[in-house]
Amino acid sequence: MLWSTLLALPALAAAAPTESWLESVSKRQGSTTMLRFGCAQVVIDRLDPLVNPGLLPSPHTHQIVGGNGFNASMTTGDVSTTATCTTCAFSKDFSNYWTANLYFKARNGSYKRVKQLGAANQFSDNFSTQIGGGVLVYYVSAQPGKITAFKPGFRMLVGDPNKRTADGGNKMQNCYRCYTGPNFGGDTAAPCAGSIDTPGLPKDVCKGGIRSNILFPTCWDGVNLDSPDHKSHVAYPSTGAANFLSLGGSCPSTHPVRIPQLMYEVVWDTTPFNNKAEWPADGSQPFYFSYGDNTGFGQHADYVFGWQGNELQKGMDASGCMGAKCKDMSNQSIDNAKKCSVSVKVHEERDNWIDKLPGVEM
Asked: Are strands 219-220 and 234-235 parallel, antiparallel or unpaired?
């Protein structure tokens, strides 16, 4: 099984330091599909149609990738019918994926948005390295057992922006990796892997940037496409750790349908802010999410399913697919993906220094 292999990854990495955990999985797991692909930025805006539908502006800024059907009021329905293009590698994926932005707070109290990097080029595809500020998306299917792709109109949310302390039970549903050198610090270990990752933002300088992984539940009630809190219709496995290694765990009886393991990966380019002389005078952690959190425990992410037809189910039923291509699933070029965009609705400063976080009084 994939996850037993991942549990042994420290040993694998020690034996073959130049081989990534993805390469290790790819060689060993013929029955596993891991769609891993980049999506370029479609817009940065203060909108949140899941939590704050119709509200202009929403309380804090988000970075959004995926289909150009994204808007403030996309509360119901199949978004694949409203989008005409996507920033993702798979050309029939009109889903939207979004997270909060990250900012650096300087010693003088001003803020600047931290830009994103690509990802480690572990499958040699342009959608890993050339997404230009986007997000890397994973959909994982591990047989045996049926994995049911999300249905049109499906939505979900993971994380809580109000959380400011560690939650031991869910600490690896959201994790950070401090890259200690250039080229992603020679990254080879699996996401949310033991002591190499932390549930909160790193407290010291990360010479190569900071990676954030956000992992969604893998069990569904089989009925509801959404719920009032955008969480209750899905659940994490009732057995196994609540992290990326839990896909093979048993689903609770209330949520018996196994769905793909969805994960976002964002690499923040914190390197322009590595000079500690510019950090707060008390040496405290200077990076804040757009909702005012410098602990990182409040990291959260939103998902609106928008794959066209049965395209995602084809991927989940396949075996041995690793990376941004799979069997006869449709792809596009990175140049074409970057042409897709959504017009900004809330016009605010996005690249220069600002006195306070947009919408946040602090």
From this structure: antiparallel
pLDDT tens figures, 256-283? 999 999 999 999 999 999 999 999 998 8
* Predicted TM-score (pTM) of this structure: 0.90
Using CA atoms, how far residue 308 sits from 80, 149, 277, 305, in Å, is 6, 12, 50, 9
Written as six digits, the tokens of 346 are: 């809330």
Burial 75-107 (b: 16+ CB within 10 A, else e): eeebbbeebebbbbbbbbbbbbbbbbbbbbbee
| 206 contacts 214 by C-beta, under 8 angstroms | no
Tokens of 94: 């009109």
Vertex 22: Cα angle to 16 and 25 (nearest 5): 85
Encoded tokens for 16: 């073959």
Judge contact between 86 and 37, C-beta under 8 A: no
What is the DSSP secondary structure assignment for residue 29, as one 8-state letter? Answer: -
Which residue in this structure is represented by tokens 């979004």? Answer: 98
Measured between alpha carbons, how far is 3 from 11 in angstroms, rounded to an integer? 14
* Helical (H) or strand (E) element with 118: none
Q: d(Cα 336, Cα 123) in Å, to the nearest integer?
A: 20
For residue 186 the two structure tokens come to: 């020679």
Question: What pairs with residue 43 in β-bridges?
Answer: 64
Please report where in the chains the tokens 């018996």 appear, as a residue: 256
- Neighbouring residues of 307: CB distance < 8 A, sequence distance ≥ 6: 80, 90, 92, 93, 94, 95, 149, 150
The answer to whether 137 and 97 are in contact (CB under 8 A) is yes
